[in-house]
Amino acid sequence: MTDDRYIPGVPCWVDTAQPDPEAALAFYGGLFGWEFEDVMPAGAPQPYFMARLRGGDVAAVAAAPEGDSATWNAYVWVADAEETAAAVRDAGGSVLVEPYDTGEWGRMAMFADPAGAAFGVWEPRSQRGAAIVNEHGSVNFNDLHTRDVDGAKAFYGAVFGWDLLDTGGFSMWALPGYGDFLEQRNPGTRENMAAAGAPERFEDVVATVVPIEDDSPPRWGLTFAVDDADAIAARATELGGRVLLPPMEAPWTRLTIITDPQGATFTASQFKPENKDLDPSAGAAAEA
Question: Which of 40, 116, 128, 155 could serve as a FRET partner for 76 with CA atoms 20 to 30 Å apart?
Fold first, then answer.
């Protein structure tokens, strides 16, 4: 059995493009305790700083193209980047960056769905995605912010085979068969989720949907797991970031929304199972 955490159709990696990568290292290193290594060869025109916790890859910091603002990017594991590009076009999306090799690491491309939300794909070779997830300072969820949920359902269903689940006020993307994969890797996954009161098919969930209720653009965002949302919000402020949404209670979590000093935004979420029965509309409205 594979040691991979991912199968095709599962988000597997995130990186942030920053006008000043070195400044981003100071912020995220101070916030999450990440350690960094520039994994580009000597003489490369731009760095790519791999962020690690306990030696495991969790994310990366790259240089933004001149004139671009800071952003976080999400990547979905695929078997064939070219085939995915064709599926994106057939489903009405656009190819922002054609598939290309990244040396021995893998092959990547950047796309946008019909509403304009950009995302990447990763066809792996030696780089097998994030080694640590769902722990403090690592990715917990990828979140599609959109006004056209029905259009997104058609597009992502065609490209990745995702189903749209309504789990008591939350909309989530589920990949058929992902729960089987997780159960093979970690026997008892389904039983443990059921015992915790997780919604039906939660073991298949790969991302969430956040309906946009303001004038912000469609986008893919991400949520980091944290041990203490209040402490993270305070620390982000100390490091020069801004707290867009102060820590608040939401179903299953206490969450806060933060913008780093160069303008990339993310959610930090503290798991609180005692909140599982809270009204989901509060958290969803806050993240819109």
Answer: 40
